[in-house]
Amino acid sequence: MEQYDLIVLGGGPAGYNAAERAAHGGLKTLLIEKNALGGVCLNEGCIPSKTLLNSAKMYDHARHSEQYGVTAENVVLDHVKVVARKKKVVKTLVTGVAGKMKRAGVKVLSCGGEILGKTESGIEVKAGEETYLAKNLLIATGSTAVVPPIPGLREGLAAGFVVTNHEIFDLNELSKKLVVIGGGVIGLEMASYFNSAGSEVTVIEMLDHIAGETDREISKLLLEAYQKKGVAFKLGCKVTGVEQGKVLYEENGAKAEAAADVVLCSIGRRAVTTGYGLENLGVYLERGAIKTDEQMRTNISGVYAAGDVNGVSMLAHTAYREGEVAVNTMLGKPDRMRYCAIPGVIYTNPEVASVGETEASAQKKGYDVGVVKMTMRASGRYIAENEGGNGICKIVYDKRYHRVLGVHMIGGYPSESIYGAAMMIETEMRIADLKEIVFPHPTVCEVIREALFEID
């Protein structure tokens, strides 16, 4: 039986990044992935969606280029070519991950893995026809789309009329009428792409707002922006059934329906904790996800979990960090996972980026909350590049200790500057010290500095 210091189950962001870190740290490492390296993020999530959305933004820019003194005629978005490019991008990155594993000395098995149990010698995992033994096991099996028991939904999936994130990126034809069930990040990003591409889009959301836990003022601005673009939002509505060609829902107690040739189910995601022998270890689950501590340890010695499977923060960049904390713990390096400054981005057009507390969550936690808001139009570059844009930057801060608690932005590419706000929160720098930081000019991120100077 071949022995390893670490076996990693799952080759997504948590798994492959941890495997590389472990190998560089001197651990003999085995990575087991039954599908493609890169996981959901690279193959059917983060990267495919950004590839499509980039094409949509280029198309939008071309169509409205006259505002900037540029005339473009006969502009066409070719969905088939967009999807073909997406496949090329994904293939390039998957190949890159495989290359990283090889260079780091990580052995990769392209098959399913099954946990057999734990003995005095270590943790046994079967992969293919072989059984492997390891001192440590990192479970990074990710998550899968939630498919609720709505009448007709599963039948629609089987027929190809209903899709999840797994299928939508490979649609060969552009949907004429797309109905999105769920107004969260995935649903909004796909609504953004298909709206730009020319589809008639309807988003049905059970809550009275979109974008989940996003700051309400920011989510309202995003809603208004997409309503102007023609996306129909049915908020506070419950989907009651799916039939060929339509989605049935209730609005204010009345029955209604929305026509559709494709339905995207994007209600949420759940941790993958079945199908690989987890029960043979006795790992503790909480609300369907693996419970972990600050070092990503489970209740079983030598067994760790990172990424979506622990259900804490289902984001690829969170997964990277969780995997690193797990590996550092295995190597005896002091480390702990902190979730107070995890950025989140919605890659619509305009983009939304947030980190830290919202005004509501900060008040709930008992902070002495202060709020300042600054229009993106305080940035010269934003005005130069966004004709008629009305983005904002909102800073939530602690009046007592004079620290930033949260930053929330909507406008031109805030995804590229939100990490700076995350550093402000992570390091707990005083606002007076933050005001001494020099921002490059002209940049959109200068709006953060302008907002800070609005704080006494």
TrEMBL record:
Top-level EC class as recorded in UniProt: oxidoreductase
Cellular localisation: Cytoplasm
Positions annotated to bind NAD(+): G182, G183, G184, V185, I186, G187, L188, E189, E205, G268
Gene3D superfamilies in the cross-refs: 3.30.390.30, FAD/NAD(P)-binding domain (3.50.50.60)
Entry GO MF terms: dihydrolipoyl dehydrogenase (NADH) activity; flavin adenine dinucleotide binding
Cysteines engaged in disulfide bonds, as pairs: C41-C46
Domain Pyridine nucleotide-disulphide oxidoreductase dimerisation residues, every copy: 342-451
Residue numbers annotated as active site: H441 (proton acceptor)
Cofactor annotation: FAD
SUPFAM superfamilies hit by this protein: FAD/NAD(P)-binding domain, FAD/NAD-linked reductases, dimerisation (C-terminal) domain
InterPro entries: Class-I_Pyr_Nuc-Dis_Oxidored (IPR050151), FAD/NAD-bd_sf (IPR036188), FAD/NAD-binding_dom (IPR023753), FAD/NAD-linked_Rdtase_dimer_sf (IPR016156), Lipoamide_DH (IPR006258), Pyr_nuc-diS_OxRdtase (IPR001100), Pyr_nucl-diS_OxRdtase_dimer (IPR004099), Pyr_OxRdtase_I_AS (IPR012999)
Reactions this protein catalyses: N(6)-[(R)-dihydrolipoyl]-L-lysyl-[protein] + NAD(+) = N(6)-[(R)-lipoyl]-L-lysyl-[protein] + NADH + H(+)
Cellular compartments per GO CC: cytoplasm
GO biological process, one term: 2-oxoglutarate metabolic process
Keyword terms, alphabetized: Cytoplasm, Disulfide bond, FAD, Flavoprotein, NAD, Nucleotide-binding, Oxidoreductase, Redox-active center
Highest taxon, organism lineage: Bacteria
Gene (UniProt): lpdA
Annotated protein name in UniProt: Dihydrolipoyl dehydrogenase
